[in-house]
Write a structure and sequence with these properties.
The complex is a heteropentamer of chains A (420), B (313), C (252), D (247) and E (366).
Chain A: H1 5-9, E1 25-32, H2 39-58, H3 61-65, E2 79-86, H4 91-103, E3 109-112, H5 116-129, E4 133-135, E5 152-154, H6 159-174, E6 179-185, H7 188-203, E7 207-214, H8 222-230, E8 235-239, H9 242-254, E9 262-268, H10 270-276, E10 284-287, H11 296-309, H12 315-334, H13 339-346, E11 349-351, E12 359-361, E13 368-369, E14 372-377, E15 389-395
Parallel strand pairs in A: 1-2, 1-3, 3-4, 4-5, 6-7, 6-8, 8-9, 9-10
Antiparallel strand pairs in A: 10-14, 11-12, 12-13, 14-15
Chain C: E1 4-13, E2 16-26, E3 31-35, H1 42-49, E4 57-62, E5 65-66, H2 72-78, E6 80-83, H3 95-108, H4 123-135, H5 151-164, E7 169-173, H6 181-198, E8 201-205, H7 209-215, E9 218-223, E10 226-231, H8 233-237, H9 240-247
Parallel strand pairs in C: 3-8, 3-9, 6-7, 7-8
Antiparallel strand pairs in C: 1-2, 1-4, 4-5, 9-10
Helix pairs in contact in C: 3-4, 3-5, 4-5
Chain D: E1 4-13, E2 16-26, E3 31-35, H1 42-50, E4 56-64, E5 67-68, H2 74-79, E6 82-85, H3 97-106, H4 127-133, H5 135-139, H6 150-163, E7 168-172, H7 180-195, E8 199-204, H8 207-213, E9 216-221, E10 224-230, H9 231-236, H10 238-245
Parallel strand pairs in D: 3-8, 3-9, 6-7, 7-8
Antiparallel strand pairs in D: 1-2, 1-4, 4-5, 9-10
Helix pairs in contact in D: 3-6
The chains are: A alpha/beta (420), B mainly alpha (313), C alpha/beta (252), D alpha/beta (247), E mainly alpha (366).
Bound molecules: adenosine-5'-triphosphate (2 copies) and magnesium ion (2 copies).
């Protein structure tokens, strides 16, 4: 569909970031954790990214069925190439890696995630370097709140929306007037989850006994858990993700906490559930996406991923795949890789092709307005590959979110396009 | 909940955490005290112990790493925890023997700093080898089902601590006592302690030192291996656990006093309990407190709690 | 005023009294030897004076000023130098640098901020170092690495380092131990010569009675931490208590 | 057959050639002195006999009780009944006086020998006897050896050697750092040991002191034997004493 | 040195000159070393990231060139402590990270001038080094290593939680606001004319000038009495004390000096990255500088800088795949192996190895 527009486009706009592209391949940078507490998520993301590149160049998956803008023969007449880097779930490593991709490999777009601290650090760098950043898995309110940038976009929902989706389900299930206790990972993501859960559960009539920060990457939560157990609360929220989440929920069950209190893990995913095994039985939470979601895009993606890797994709994988295609489609619509134009194409774009219902990539904070699935962990006996929880409810986007001048978006100042 | 339950919980949590430090610190300390060897690769032995324990006790699915790439995605003997606990110390003991022979010997007469550096390098190599073979992502090493949940004993049942942690404390106590008796009260211990200062003179007395040395190193290593097996199910298992545990283990040795087994025990308990108490009170300061304690102890008693001041030459 | 004085000096190790109410005084320019049976407390006394050990009680005064509470290097700065028994040198440095280190300390104090001065500009230090090396006969070897020196020369350098610190008082604990009679002779000559030239005061600890009686102005005898006799060599030779505690039947 | 037979030994420290074709014999029961000035090679000779490394013995043989012990590890040599009082005393600083004495007996315990051949026949001195001979050590039983005075350490080093089962005792400057009175005590002890049948090879720089108790003497210079004869012969040989011993 | 009278005469004219011009006058080889360093610094980014053919082989890039210099300064200072005074610190992350936070906070609240930021960060690091040195220098060897490690970890955990309101905790410090150099030149902008080809950005030029000054300072320190005293203390501490040197204060001084270099480097790091990650205080950062220094060669001025280059090269280029796809996942393993082999076989590191080779070759010719 680009029809040679890419080559001709080079003279249309001034140099900016890595635009114009030299040669006839455009390179994407995949900056994912391959070590550290979120390594499992990162590995799955990388698989999805590679699948996306394959589909962009050779057709297949959503490129053929869901994204009309994409041709399956590269983007804007450029073949797509990619480089990857290991963020080690560490902001500094991630920035070094992103900076190498931008400066040496001259990538036209960076994507990646798992850890909001990393995403925030990298998107700030991308803003400076005028290179679009498609945030993959980052769930902190701040990513599109106080730390938002013009060059960053987020498909994933955030902690605020998790709170909105989860609170009614929890009060329904466990009753009113309960006391809850939170352990949260001590960084941007955990802090905003703690904040939002507190806000919405308190609004629903529950009372927070205490909330305690635990360092990211803690491996033994026993002391923290004992404190929680002895606090007399009815519900324990474990605001931990990835490996940390799997660990804390297993240790809670090992210590017998589930006998006296209800456990909640606000943000879940498949690798976590797999690692925690029996411990997740009956535990509520939200997920980015799940292979059990029954709609065409979801099932197509599941199929494509399974065909390629013979395994079931996780939520982060769906995000990775979707974000890559979204960027490519925006470039096609803009007719150029010139970043400000691509950004303008993404802003306020409405779509319904990634399996999470109709969505808008909101222009005021670059936060996708979308549905949030609420799930509950299955007993070990009912677990199977790709099936660790039942979907309780897919909360519609109309029941979620906040206005451009409210909630996290109220603190967002996007910054410049770079062509002003 | 009543105050005394809370206090006991905190204390037990502290003891359990301290137990892992103690197992590592005692090994480090006797190696440092007798062979005068600074082993920054002790964490690597812990790492080996954990993976060995996991693969003996359970079957695991690898999701990344070369082994998985080569088709060994499903790995492990699945023999259960008791066999793991019995076999692993021997495995790591043998690794220790090899290490004594190939690393400690050549570096025995090099400066402390060289020993630290070479073992630091080895620690990195071991960690990265595990990463290469088993992948970076954590493997689940669950606590045995018979040790999950609080023990079904009248009083302890009310304390939110799993039975496994009681086993950890018990196993540590027994092993450390055995090692202590061995070093303090046997000929073996005497020879080893003498060799600390002047190995050649020991040989001139007709005593061959190579074997006692190897045995000391092996014992230290085996203790690290045991720590790996008992500590593994308390933490997620991944290649970095070895180097992460090394820092507190070394601190334990130093605040307890190099070469002093009792000191290592005291240091480990102090560390574990301090940490547990701080988590229960000012959790933001829990980690800071650990290092602050270490710093204070060393400032007041540079030779460590039970260490002997250096004998004047 | 005596150059060095100790007053009721006591040092205890646990229950053991190694130095017991010792009152010692050394006049400027004097040569004093301390003798006594093994474990009498001689080395302990020297270590107290050089501040390697803290006294349990009592006082040590150098040039009238109490040095208890000073650090070892401060005591050296005041003019107390010690030669070590086994050659204690900086073996990776050249002979010249060995001497320069000591000279630097005596010329510029125990610590200075002269870090931006190039070494070449410290002419005073070079001079002292050269003079000292000359005095101990090592000037022609100045650029050799100290570790390459033969043992005898190392001992020489050792004494050279002690001298380059320009001390007023030199303490020597068994300086000739392990030396052959010849070497001993040479060392004694060196010391005497240095004394003559630099007017040094020194305190010597020795078990070799020949040397002791030859070069001491005064001898102090210690036994079990206490001074049991004190006097000129002749007086000591005749002292019954000394015979009994220390010399045994040795013929002199 | 002599008890110890050092035959044409060449020993090296790295590339420096220290002992040059050195030969000496020690007969059973005698006290033999090995004299020479600093650096002559006396300590090197003792180390070559006792199997300490360095030096490296490249040529020649050392025979003990007729067996070739050249190049055997130090611990094996000790098992044959050779004990050494080394030059720098080398007591175990971190062990108590008692433990220093106890360790000397460890190698006699069969469980610690690991089936190495042990042919020592000498009797080990009893601990009571040690404390009787060196009352100073008795007073300091539980003190760490590192904090002993120089002379006390020397006594301990000698006592430790005597606690081994000794057929041949190698003494490297045993009087160094000892008060004159203790020197007498040690001399007496050496004579008594000798009377009990232990053979002694005594290294000294001080010829006078050695001649007092020695039956026979060797003088070495630059790693080679330059004099060999009875103690009386040496006493009368002014030239040798002046030339090689500096007296 | 061999020509005794000439050296003395040299010294005398020098000192009278020094009185008038000051002690900053280059002496001996200093001018030559500085010139050579300046030349290398001037062509490095060009060769590394822009020179035809060569840069394609090397796969370098501008920002890595800058980063190498920054870590080089850090390692150089570290070696003054490890290589000369013989103290192995495992806590230098405290100075690097501390300075980075200080410079960052300074830029947010006081001034974003790069020069002032470097000053602020360095002053902080020096004060911190003074304080921590005071506490940890009570014992050497392993105790010192562990004590420094403990204090640095304490700082890490302080900023991760109790001080998170300043440092941003795990999120890192994001409030850095760097202003233009001299109020004129944005650091990331390109230099004029041929300088652009050679040096690239103002940032590089700024870092390179500071690196040059650091090399000069390091060289001077080593050739001042301090250099000699440091070596003497490492050799024989007791003897040094007994010639009347205050060993403790010299050690403290060498600790502070290396803290100074770490501070300069840490401040430049925040200027370069406009971000301070929490991990800059973590003990692995200390471990990295140890590896760099040893790899490059302890006891030499330039070895550690080379080590920093090699380390960062492997970390950033080799790990990044192309053209090292085959070994990329194992970059850390490779570094570990190289590190161990270095200690085992070439204890004097890469630099020492090349010097030995050079000596061997020239020695062979003689
Ligand atoms: N740190 C210590 N702890 C316990 N006792 C000690 C310590 N240091 C020295 N002593 C004891 O103090 C006494 C005096 O020792 P010192 O070294 O002063 O003797 P000395 O007169 O120098 O003897 P020598 O002539 O044998 O060298 C000795 O009995 C020794 O065992
Ligand atoms: N470890 C060593 N490495 C190299 N050379 C050595 C070593 N030990 C001794 N030497 C040299 O070997 C020679 C002989 O030394 P040895 O110690 O045997 O002499 P000695 O006769 O015992 O002297 P002394 O009476 O001083 O003890 C000397 O020149 C000495 O410098
Ligand atoms: Mg003495
Ligand atoms: Mg000798």
């Amino acid at each position: 569909s680009g029809g040679g527009g890419g080559g001709g486009g080079e003279s249309e706009y001034p140099e900016l970031g890595n635009y114009p592209i030299e040669g006839d391949t455009a390179t994407f940078g995949f900056n994912v954790p391959q070590s550290g507490p979120y390594a499992s998520e990162g590995e799955d993301e990388l698989r999805a990214y590679e699948l996306a590149v394959d589909h962009l160049n050779n057709g297949g998956g959503w490129v053929d069925s869901q994204f009309d803008d994409l041709s399956g023969d590269g983007v804007l007449d450029y073949q797509i190439d990619s480089v990857s880097g290991d963020t080690a779930t560490d902001a500094d490593t991630a920035r070094q890696s992103a900076s190498r991709m931008i400066q040496r490999d001259e990538v036209i777009m960076v994507t990646g995630g798992s850890s909001s601290a990393v995403a925030i650090a990298v998107q700030e760098l991308c803003q400076r370097e005028n290179t679009p950043f498609m945030a993959c898995l980052t769930h902190s309110n701040d990513t599109t709140g106080q730390n938002c940038v013009r060059y960053g976009f987020r498909e994933m929902f955030n902690a605020y929306m998790t709170g909105q989706a989860l609170a009614p389900v929890l009060t329904d299930e466990y009753g009113d007037d309960l006391q809850f206790y939170q352990l949260y990972a001590d960084y941007s993501w955990g802090q905003t989850v703690q904040e939002s859960m507190n806000q919405f559960l308190t609004e629903a009539g529950w009372e927070e006994v205490d909330s305690v920060a635990t360092p990211l990457g803690t491996s033994d939560y026993s002391s923290y858990l004992s404190e929680a157990a002895n606090s007399g609360a009815d519900v324990l929220l474990l605001d931990h993700y990835g490996l940390d989440g799997a660990t804390s929920v297993s240790q809670a069950v090992d210590a017998g906490l589930d006998e006296d209190m209800e456990l909640v893990v606000p943000l879940y995913n498949r690798p976590m559930a797999e690692a925690a095994g029996a411990a997740i039985e009956g535990v509520f939470g939200t997920v980015a996406w799940d292979s059990q979601i029954d709609n065409t895009p979801s099932q197509e993606f599941l199929q494509a991923f399974q065909d390629e890797y013979d395994r079931i994709p996780s939520g982060p994988a769906q995000l990775a795949y979707g974000q890559t295609l979204q960027y490519a489609a925006a470039a096609e619509r803009a007719g150029t890789f010139y970043p400000p134009e691509v950004i303008r194409q993404l802003e306020d774009y409405e779509y319904d092709n990634v399996g999470m219902g109709p969505e808008t990539m909101r222009g005021c904070d670059h936060q996708a307005q979308r549905d949030v699935p609420v799930v509950r962990g299955l007993p070990e006996s009912e677990q199977a590959e790709g099936q660790y929880f039942e979907i309780i409810n897919v909360t519609g986007r109309d029941e979620l979110g906040y206005a451009c001048d409210a909630g996290p978006a109220g603190e967002c100042e996007l910054g410049e396009y770079g062509d002003e | 909940m009543s105050f005394h339950i809370e206090a006991i919980t905190v204390l037990l949590n502290g003891l359990q955490q301290g137990a892992i430090y103690i197992l590592l610190a005692v090994g480090l300390s006797i190696i440092l005290g007798t062979l005068k060897f600074v082993n920054f690769a002790h964490g690597a032995l812990y790492l080996i112990g954990t993976y060995a324990g996991l693969l003996i006790a359970l079957e695991v699915n690898l999701t990344s790493g070369q082994l998985q790439a080569w088709g060994f995605g499903q790995l492990g003997l699945g023999l259960g925890y008791i066999p793991a606990l019995l076999i692993v110390p021997f495995v790591v003991f043998v690794v220790g023997l090899a290490m004594e022979r190939w690393v400690v010997e050549p570096f025995k007469n090099r400066p402390d700093t060289d020993q630290i550096l070479v073992t630091f390098g080895l620690a990195i190599i071991v960690q990265e080898l595990f990463r290469a073979f088993f992948g970076s992502s954590s493997l689940p090493f669950s606590q045995p089902s018979w040790a999950q949940g609080p023990p079904q004993v009248p009083f302890l049942a009310a304390i939110p601590i799993s039975s496994w942690r009681y086993y950890v404390i018990g196993i540590t106590a027994v092993l450390v006592l055995i090692v202590y008796l061995l070093v303090e009260f046997t000929d073996f211990g005497l020879v080893v302690r003498a060799g600390t200062r002047d190995p050649e003179m020991v040989e001139l007395l007709g005593i061959r030192l190579s074997r006692p040395y190897i045995v000391v190193f092996g014992i230290g290593a085996a203790l690290a291996g045991v720590a790996g097996v008992v500590g593994g199910p308390l933490n997620p298992v991944n290649p970095t656990i070895g180097n992460e545990i090394l820092v507190p283990a070394f601190l334990t040795v130093v605040i307890g006093g190099v070469g002093s087994i009792a000191g290592a025990v005291l240091g480990g308990v102090l560390f574990g309990v301090t940490q547990a108490v701080l988590v229960a009170t000012y959790s933001a300061w829990a980690q800071v407190g650990l290092y602050a304690i270490a710093a204070i102890v060393l400032l007041v008693r540079p030779q460590g709690l039970l260490g002997e001041a250096e004998v004047a030459p | 005023m005596a150059l060095l004085e100790t007053e009721n000096l006591v040092k205890e190790f646990g229950g053991l009294v190694a130095t017991d109410e010792v009152n010692l005084s050394v006049e400027e320019g004097e040569r004093v030897s301390i003798i006594g049976p093994n474990g009498a407390g001689k080395s302990t006394l020297v270590n107290l004076i050089t501040r390697r050990l803290d006294p349990t009680s009592g006082d040590i005064r150098f040039k009238g000023e109490s040095i208890v509470g000073h650090d070892p290097h401060e005591v050296v700065q005041m003019g107390v130098s010690k030669s070590f028994q086994t050659a204690s040198i900086f073996s990776d440095l050249t002979v010249r640098e060995n001497a320069e280190i000591a000279a630097l300390a005596s010329e510029h104090g125990s610590f200075g901020f002269k870090l931006l001065e190039h070494r070449d500009s410290l002419t005073g230090v070079h001079q002292v170092a050269r003079d000292t090396l000359d005095a101990v006969g090592l000037l022609d070897q100045a650029d050799r690495q100290a570790s390459e020196l033969p043992y005898g020369d190392k001992r020489r350098l050792e004494i050279g380092i002690a001298l380059a610190a320009e001390p007023d008082l030199l303490l020597m604990d068994e300086p000739t131990a392990g030396m052959s009679p010849e070497e001993t002779e040479a060392t004694v000559d060196l010391v005497e010569e240095v004394k003559r030239e630099l007017g040094l005061t020194f305190v010597l600890i020795e078990h070799d009675m020949e040397i002791v009686f030859r070069i001491s102005d005064r001898i102090v005898v210690l036994n079990r931490g206490q001074v049991i006799a004190e006097g000129t060599p002749d007086e000591i030779k005749g002292d019954a208590a000394v015979q009994e505690a220390y010399l045994g039947g040795v013929e002199l | 057959m002599s008890l110890l037979d050092v035959d044409a030994v060449d020993a090296y420290y790295g590339e420096s050639h220290i002992l040059r074709d050195l030969s000496l014999t020690v007969e059973e029961g005698e006290v033999c002195a090995l004299l020479g000035r600093n650096g002559a090679g006396k300590t090197t000779t003792l180390r070559s006999i006792s199997g300490a490394k360095p030096p490296e013995v490249r040529d020649g043989t050392v025979r003990f009780k007729g067996d070739d012990i050249t190049g055997l590890p130090a611990d094996d040599v000790a098992m044959q009944g050779i004990s050494l009082v080394p030059e720098e005393r080398r007591v175990f600083a971190n062990l108590t006086v008692e433990e220093n004495l106890r360790i000397a007996e460890v190698s006699r315990n069969t469980s610690n020998t690991w089936r190495r051949p042990r042919t020592a026949t000498g009797q080990s001195m009893s601990t009571e006897q040690v404390y009787e001979d060196f009352p100073r050590l008795g007073e300091r039983k539980t003190q760490k050896a590192g904090t002993l005075s120089g002379g006390e350490q020397q006594m301990l080093a000698i006592a430790r050697a005597l606690k081994q089962s000794t057929d041949l005792l190698l003494l490297d400057e045993p009087y160094e750092g000892l008060a004159p009175k203790i020197v007498e005590d040690v001399e007496a002890a050496i004579e008594r040991i000798s009377d009990q049948g232990v053979t002694i090879l005594l290294v000294e720089q001080n010829a006078a002191a050695a001649i007092k108790i020695a039956d026979r003497a060797y003088v070495v210079d630059q790693g080679a034997v330059v004099f060999d004869g009875s103690a009386t012969e040496l006493r009368d040989d002014d030239e040798t004493r002046e030339r090689y011993l500096g007296v | 040195m061999s020509d005794e009278p000439a050296a003395a005469a040299d010294g005398e004219t020098g000192s009278s000159f020094a009185d008038t011009v000051g002690i900053w006058m280059p002496r001996g080889d200093e001018l030559r070393v500085m010139t050579a360093t300046a030349v290398v610094l001037a062509v490095f980014p060009f060769v590394f990231s822009r020179m035809p053919v060569v840069s394609d082989l090397l796969q370098g890039y501008q920002s890595l060139a800058t980063l190498i210099l920054i870590w080089g300064i850090f390692a150089l200072g570290f070696d003054l402590l490890l290589g000369y005074t013989g103290l192995l610190s495992f806590g230098h992350a405290a100075f690097w990270g501390g300075a980075a936070y200080a410079a960052g906070v300074f830029s947010q609240h006081v001034s974003g001038s790069p020069i002032l930021m470097v000053l602020a960060g360095t002053v902080f690091a020096v004060l911190l080094a003074w304080f921590l040195g005071f506490l940890s220098l009570r014992r050497g060897g392993i105790y010192f290593a562990i004590l420094t490690l403990a204090f640095a970890q304490m700082m890490f955990y302080m900023s991760s939680s109790p001080l998170a309101f300043i440092t941003g905790g795990e999120n890192g410090f994001t409030g850095v606001e760097t202003a233009e150099l001299f109020g004129l030149f944005p650091l990331e902008s390109e230099l004029p004319l041929v300088l652009e080809t050679l040096l690239g950005t103002w940032l590089y030029a700024f870092v390179a000038v500071i690196a040059l000054l650091c090399v000069a300072l390091g060289y001077r320190i080593l050739h001042s009495p301090y250099g000699m005293v440091f070596r003497a203390i490492r050799e024989n501490e007791q003897r040094a004390e007994f010639v009347g040197l205050n060993v403790w204060r010299y050690r403290l001084m060498s600790f502070i000096i290396s803290g100074f270099f770490a501070g300069v480097a840490g401040s430049l790091f925040v200027i370069h990255g406009t971000y301070v990650p929490l991990s800059s205080l973590y003990w692995t950062t200390s471990g990295e500088v140890v590896i760099m220094t040893v790899l490059g060669g302890t006891g030499s001025l330039f070895g550690p800088v080379v080590g920093a280059g090699v380390y960062l090269y492997v970390e950033n280029i080799v790990s990044g795949g192309h053209p090292f796809e085959f070994v990329a996942p194992f970059w850390h393993l490779i570094l570990g192996l190289v590190f161990v082999v270095t200690i085992w076989v070439f204890p004097r590191g890469i630099w020492g190895f090349f010097r030995d080779v050079r000596d061997y070759v020239t020695g062979g010719e003689d």
